Amino acid sequence: KAGVTQTPRYLIKTRGQQVTLSCSPISGHRSVSWYQQTPGQGLQFLFEYFSETQRNKGNFPGRFSGRQFSNSRSEMNVSTLELGDSALYLCASSLDEESSGGYTFGSGTRLTVV
Amino acid sequence: GQNIDQPTEMTATEGAIVQINCTYQTSGFNGLFWYQQHAGEAPTFLSYNVLDGLEEKGRFSSFLSRSKGYSYLLLKELQMKDSASYLCAVRDRGFKTIFGAGTRLFVKA
Description:
The structure holds 2 protein chains of 2 kinds.
Chain A: E1 5-7, E2 10-13, E3 19-24, E4 31-38, E5 42-50, E6 53-57, E7 64-68, E8 74-78, E9 87-94, E10 104-105, E11 109-113
Parallel strand pairs in A: 2-11
Antiparallel strand pairs in A: 1-3, 3-8, 4-5, 4-9, 5-6, 7-8, 9-10, 9-11
Chain B: E1 3-5, E2 9-13, E3 18-25, E4 32-37, E5 44-49, E6 53-57, E7 60-65, E8 70-75, E9 84-91, E10 97-99, E11 103-108
Parallel strand pairs in B: 2-11
Antiparallel strand pairs in B: 1-3, 3-8, 4-5, 4-9, 6-7, 7-8, 9-10, 9-11
């Protein structure tokens, strides 16, 4: 079966712009989580969606937002981009929030802000 | 706050056994996960512990002590392909999964 698909793979944006990243989870998975990964900070939790509802949110500013659609696909948006937003953004899906099977991660979107 | 600690780097020899430790302080506990991440790739799920004790999966085993807030990942018969980062992650009371910074393991011949 298809894995978690993230688009685009690479993105270069200018400071002040906004960006939308997309994630299609594994078919049947209803939980989608987003993480920011940087060399110094590791994986930082952004938010988690389950059945179109945001269940959890990390400690990121309001410029970071997301949503989940009825088909479980998810998008995250970053407005007013800053240089420090340059990172790998990973989407992960699981059957549900209590799954013992862990996450399946997508390959990520590498965002560079110049 | 929530905190997960792991050693930054470890080096081991091919064929040997290595233990990667993880200690955590989180808002409640709903399971602990270990992931492997090769350079330039996404993390992949290795193991899950929710009750105390040892879970074995082939060459990999994971141990949990909830009272001590402690886990370890044991890798046996190390192979060169095991060179990767190993991430400890804890799912808290609110089902939010927090990751440690990861342990970079170098396997030498």
